Amino acid sequence: MDQAAVGEQADRPGRASEQRWPDRQALEGPFSTRQLLRLDEALRTADDSTGLTFSVYVGELTESPREHAEELHRRLSEPAESVLVAVSPNERVLEIVTGARARHRLPDRDCKLAAMSMAAAFGGGDLAGGIVAGLAQLAQRART
Questions:
Q1: Model confidence over 96-108: pLDDT tens digits?
Q2: Whole-angstrom Cα distance, residue 138 to residue 113?
Q3: How far apart are CA 93 and CA 85, in angstroms?
Q4: Which residues contact 137 (CB under 8 A, 6 or more apart)?
Q5: Tens digits of per-residue pLDDT, 42-65?
Q6: Above 80 in pLDDT, residue 66?
Q7: What radius of gyration, in Å, describes the C-alpha atoms of the chain?
Q8: What pTM value is reported for the model?
């Protein structure tokens, strides 16, 4: 195929995006590209500044949200040193799960304060901003 043919194929509506993004579900998530970049930066900053591993799950949680969040946390590569923020926007549920070592630096009280802050932002319609602010708050508490 020559150069012109490649350019023409890429310009056809629907074709270029399907070729570049085979997993269309990722494009239809709750976050814009800018929000995803902010979330990625917040996670990286929290990890680097604390030595813990922070993760975020946004999606449906089963009938027992806490148990589901704990199961997701157990699947992480190093659960003892990990913190999972699990958010189910449709169910209006937020769970923060800390591993055994992470819990020493992030007691329940600190997690509850971060959860209240996130819930307030979520109530105002800012899902990404609430998660970013919550991660920053958790990281700050884990550093002190």
A1: 999 999 999 999 9
A2: 9
A3: 11
A4: 113, 114, 117
A5: 999 999 999 999 999 999 998 899
A6: yes
A7: 19
A8: 0.79
